[in-house]
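Lab notebook, entry 355. We have the chain sequence and a SMILES string for flavin mononucleotide, and the next step in the workflow is to get a structural model of the bound complex before anyone spends time on docking refinements. Request logged below.

Task: model protein plus flavin mononucleotide, output structure tokens.
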Amino acid sequence: MAVNQMTAQNPGTTHGRDQAADTPLMMLTYRSRATSPLSETQLGDLQHTAAARNRAEGITGMMVYNDDRIFQWLEGPPASIARIWSSISRDPRHADIEALSMQTAPSRLFSRWSLKLTTGPADPLIGEMTAATMSSTNAAAERLAALAIAAEPTEARLLLHAAYAEFRSIAALTELLIEPAARALGDLWAEDDCGEYEVTLGLCRLQTFLREVATDSMQQQIAHPLVVLVAPLPGEIHMLGATLDAEALWQAGHDTRVRFPSTERALERIVATKWFDAIDLSLSPAFSREHRIERMRHIVDSVRRASKNPALVVITGGRAFYDRTASSDDVHAHTSSTSAAHLPATVARVLKKHA
Ligand SMILES: Cc1cc2nc3c(=O)[nH]c(=O)nc-3n(C[C@H](O)[C@H](O)[C@H](O)COP(=O)(O)O)c2cc1C
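Result returned:
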């Protein structure tokens, strides 16, 4: 099949918004899967509307659609990227959305296209680009991880505050910087570049700095808020995942309760005495915790048995689920989340399915 290319060209080859040398340019890539196959007409409509908004936002980029799989590359001013990303990541037309990289870029690769769309088998250039992007390191997140375990964490705090000033979005900050930094801390430990204590310290600092920047975050008002319990798995000392999940669910308008039960029994008591629509149980965002998967399954089973709500929806999260070394089936959960940024949409989808 021939490569079918539809392009939305920009009127000129320049973009006013990043002409000034001091305006940073950000590039973001992600992959996802269409929730149901997109016809050529649907793709054309999507491209038409998206390209118009990209043009207004000073964004250029490309999207590959092949066999329901989606890969997109976006480049533009950080605040515009954060706004568009917030819309894209909430869009029900695709799922399993996974940000691959976010970094500053010296120049645009797709300066002529508001959104270049390629369908059919991706050409080798795109394959190469995807591979390069996936293996490229997220420099900002790695830097944040290193700064978070420095003797004096002021620079880490400044970096996080500066990133928030650009994104103005906790969801973007979470998915593009904090969660990758947590994984980078785990990688530093795996490579023997720091100890377990430092990873825990770094995660605590990220959590503290997140709380500082999130003080002005607003809660959306929604018609039917869900009652959601957010907790780290009893015995899990890394609380960052639960904190990020709780923030995302709260912002999305849900009645969010965060608890830190130290034992399985304590967790059972919580779900037995209060009605919850869903529970979000998390493992470390830094370590893969392979040895805790079996215990998690056991706890999920006992929580379900103890729950006041017999149809309690169970969602699990943590590095194990991001890396796919464990699946929701392994722990008897309804689903697992790979980023707090997508958790509210995931909870709503699962609850709708099981209603
Ligand atoms: C795979 C995919 C790629 C998309 N790419 C873009 C894009 O590059 N720019 C854009 O403005 N919208 C894009 N959209 C559409 C947005 O998700 C969203 O519908 C649109 O921007 C309107 O935003 P709103 O829902 O926040 O009002 C894309 C949607 C999908 C499913």
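Notes for the group: The chain is about 45% helix and 20% strand. Worth checking against the assay data. Residues 46, 50, 53-54, 63, 70, 72, 74, 84, 87-88, 91, 93-94, 115 surround flavin mononucleotide (CB under 6 Å).
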